[in-house]
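Example S7 (structure tokens).
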């Protein structure tokens, strides 16, 4: 569940950054993209956090 939310947030940030925000402020769009690039590794860590503890 958390993985889906994090990846949805990542996708939303990318789409909004380059479809909407870049028309008004390119530096803010770049900052949004940088934040979106950081999310997937943390999402993978969260998704695999308790894999070995499941029965």
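Recovered sequence:
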């Amino acid at each position: 569940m958390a993985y889906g939310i994090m990846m949805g947030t990542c996708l939303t940030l990318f789409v909004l950054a380059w479809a909407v925000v870049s028309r008004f402020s390119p530096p803010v769009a770049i900052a949004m993209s940088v934040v979106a690039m950081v999310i997937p590794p943390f999402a993978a860590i969260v998704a695999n956090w308790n894999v070995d503890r499941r029965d």
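Notes on this example. Residues 2-24 form the longest helix (23 residues).
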